[in-house]
Amino acid sequence: MWDKEHKVLGILGGMGPLATQLFYRQIIERTEATCDQEHVDIILFNHASMPDRTAALVSGKGEELFGRLMEDAQRLQRYGATAIAIPCNTSHFFADRLQEELSIPIINMIRETAIFVANRAKEISCVGILATDGTIKGGLYQKAFEEVGVKPIIPSDRNQALVMKIIYEGIKGGIPIDYNDFRTIEDELLANGCQAVVLACTELSCFKEIYRLPDYYIDAMEVLTDKSIEACGKRVKKK
Predict the structure, then answer these.
(1) Active site residue 232
(2) What is the pLDDT of residues 136-177, one digit of tens each?
(3) Active site residue: 88, 194, 206, 232, which one?
(4) Arch. (CATH architecture) of 110-221
(5) pTM of the entire predicted model
(6) Domain 8-108+223-231, CATH number (from 3.40.50.1860, 3.10.20.600, 3.50.50.60, 3.20.20.70)
(7) Are strands 8-13 and 196-199 parallel, antiparallel or unpaired?
């Protein structure tokens, strides 16, 4: 196996599979490397059969989900991971509890994204949040942004249903997406004064790639990607 100083990224993935493969590819593409040996060593669990995160939280079955996440995180630690990335925003509902049971760090996508936005405070004082019902109802991003002094805005109930439609039917389900649904969501956030919008669901990271969304949309997965590269002692390519 690796020596004690060697950095290895553990990816707790499969939530969902398409988002996990995008995250893995982003790490490769965004690492400054000229040969195989300069890339990040990775242990990847694509646990696609993990219970649906939003459904578990809404139905009160969160403890079962937490138990499975904990098992996977501990496996990654035993197999030699020195840091863990979870490319699923809703799962971060349990991130602090998971961290209490581990001796290696979890790279917290939500906190890192809030810090990333806060560092652009002169440009962004009000940010929209596009996420699953579980992430929204858990208040994960709302709390993180309030802590760094940035005002969070979430969609109306009607438009939140459109966000879920894009995530579950469009990306997870493979059903053709009506881009007008996204325009409706966008119009509301612009009208509410959002100076940027965080794509706070990794399926929406896939959506961004498909539709080539502009920089107005801040991708939480990209923040996680860069922090994961740095956690393994590698450099992020300059854009």
Answers:
(1) no
(2) 999 999 999 999 999 999 999 999 999 999 999 999 999 999
(3) 88
(4) 3-Layer(aba) Sandwich (3.40)
(5) 0.94
(6) 3.40.50.1860
(7) unpaired
